[in-house]
Write a structure and sequence with these properties.
The chain is of the alpha+beta class. The chain contains twelve helices and 15 strands. It has helices at 2-15, 102-127, 135-146, 148-161, 167-176, 182-195, 200-214, 236-242, 256-272, 288-297, 314-318, 344-353; strands spanning 17-24, 32-39, 42-50, 55-61, 66-72, 75-81, 84-90, 98-99, 225-227, 233-235, 245-251, 277-283, 303-305, 326-331, 336-339. It is globular.
Amino acid sequence: MMAMAALMMVACQNKNAYTINGTFDAAGEGDSISLQLVEGRKLVDLQKVPVVNGKFEFKGVADSVQIAAITLGDAFCQFFLEPGEIKVDLKLGQMAFALGTPNNNAYESFMSDMRALEDEYDEIARSEQNPELSDAQREEIKAQLGGFEQKFYQAIKNSVSDNTNNDFGLYNLCNYYSMYEPQELAELLDKFMVTFPTNARLLQIKKRNDITLETAVGKHFKDFEMPDTEGNMHKLSEYIAANKVTLVDFWASWCGPCRAEMPAVKAAYEAYKDKGFGIVGVSLDNSKDAWTAAIENLGMEWAHISDLKGWGCEGAKLYGVSSIPATVLVAQDGTILARNLRGEAIQEKLAEILK
């Protein structure tokens, strides 16, 4: 019985075994290279082996797929540590990839597609430097460059959709889920939940998205109460009832993109405040002094409330806000008309409503 149990244990270990064979020509005599697990922003040492004649090898058992890194000085390769034969070719000053196992092959294929898009973008951008271009040609080039953001988004979405049953797909989804519309994300999450029903990060994203779906366009707004800059309590419903349409603007004094967006918000307010448009700024600040100073410095002449809980802001939680700036446009009857309007899109939407 004991011999049988030992054989079964060896079989299980072999099933989950990994071997990493790598090369690094720039390694010096006596150099050792590290295999580390990536845990949040930390690298946790797992193994260290010598580099002999530019070659190294790691062996071990991976009971689950984890994000790992191989490092030596400035040389770095992030990859998926998983069972199988993994090959890595490190180069100084170049991004290195691991190959040979399913998740690593999928990751390299995705990055290859992204590099091809970057090269295409750079080539078009360089063509704009031609002094002989006409104004029409320059406008055409700018239009082409402007369309690349959507190309990058689509490449990411295609990769995620093609990998809903593996850890690489889960990794990409967790990195890029904020680019999806709530209903689109909900359908994608359902597919991932089949393979990863207990994944903590996935469950967190799903919980937040479920909340967002409850406050999607067409739904009724959710009320909350917070103090203004003087400490007086106000309900969101007070402002919504007072305006034909109200923009709930989640922001913070420390948020660079929020500050960059403020001129567009101010322009919309000036253009439509006399036509029934109002704004409520909901700050994700922790410091009252920083909050009130930013309001004054940025010239934000509308209502402001905050519970000064930072990312723990109760209002932000109710609307599933995971990044800022974030906006919710609400009609006087409480119907949510739009979410996350930015730049000129705010005035374009108001022009439809406040004719």
